[in-house]
Specification:
Pfam families: Oxidored_FMN. This protein is an alpha/beta fold. It contains 12 helices and 15 strands. Strands 3-4-5-9-10-11-14-15 form an 8-stranded parallel barrel, surrounded by 4 helices. The protein binds flavin mononucleotide. The site of flavin mononucleotide (FMN) has 24 residues, from strand 4 and helix 11.
Amino acid sequence: MPSNLFTPIQVGNCHLLNRIVFAPLTRCRNVKTVPSDLQVTHYAQRGQDPGTLLISEATMISEKSGGYLGHENLPGIWSSEQTEGWRKVVQAVHDAKSFMFIQLWDLGRASDPETIKALGYDRVSASDHYTEDGKNFVRGLEVKEIKERVDFYVQAAQNAIQAGADGVEIHAANGYLPDQFLRWNTNTRNDEYGGSVEKRARFVFEIVAAVVAQVGQKKTSIRLSPWTRFGDMAVDEHKSREQFEYVVTQLQTQYPDLAYIHVIEGRTDGHQDLEVPQWMNNDWIQNIWKGPIIRAGGYTPESAVAEAQTNDRTLVAFGRMFTSNPDLVDRVRHGKALTKYDRSTFYTQTGEGYVDWKNAD
Ligand SMILES: Cc1cc2nc3c(=O)[nH]c(=O)nc-3n(C[C@H](O)[C@H](O)[C@H](O)COP(=O)(O)O)c2cc1C
């Protein structure tokens, strides 16, 4: 029986020829927040199998939204120069006949305290609190600032589409700002943005509504990580399930034509593998969400084939293994061995370990 992984599927406006997705991967090869020629080569290599979906590395929607360590080597999409940089990357992916979504990123409290201060901004989150064992203060956003953040998403989405991208992915996973609003440990507000499951989800839905109004449902998608503790996010079998079930249910009710929902399995925590209990699974999502669903985190060629057989709308994203196998799709298709990745070059700034991985013979 042919595997679903190699059966075409429509995702948003993209007619994909396979269901293996290039996962968003921060790789720090930008120059002054502008995508570089190295990235043009890197993404084109990974889009070499026609009809493959690539999701960009997390891309800052404003300067205020950044402030990670190594800020300058991470991409933005608020200026015309950055948009121009992305246009070259997207063009190269399109030349390879593949597709690209740009991941929209607001770090919130995940910013580095010194870096965000040097940029001239406060370190912010859903609510006032201290992090790093009480050493660093994080300020809760005022309502007018929340509206400003939503406007940043809209401008970034518009720029991404102007750069030629096939869509945008709202990064609401891995402990960044939208995720900080969803979790009860970082969101202790008691106004309309906190205090209940519905109110904690309000920021996410304001972003989705505004981005959809700008670019349409078919060019909008979202990434969620219900079970991820990365960034010190609170996780609880029942509370997390209730929170994320609400989000997915509302997405299905209000935005059934989103390009896709992308979920990270609990067994990977941002960058590494973990042992997790059985209740930390995302299988329930496909019973609520009826559109395309991308599953990511710790998949092997064998488990990806099995996952894709569970229904006719599951795609599987690969992260680490795509770094070291530019022809990953073809290797999985033909059962060829995969080359192990090299963690030491994940976040360096040169082409080594980035554009020099070879296709299989
Ligand atoms: C080097 C590296 C960078 C990452 N950067 C991002 C990112 O920018 N955005 C994001 O949503 N996830 C990011 N992730 C998580 C991956 O998208 C993916 O969920 C994770 O690697 C698990 O998939 P894998 O087991 O196939 O590697 C990153 C992971 C790694 C290893």
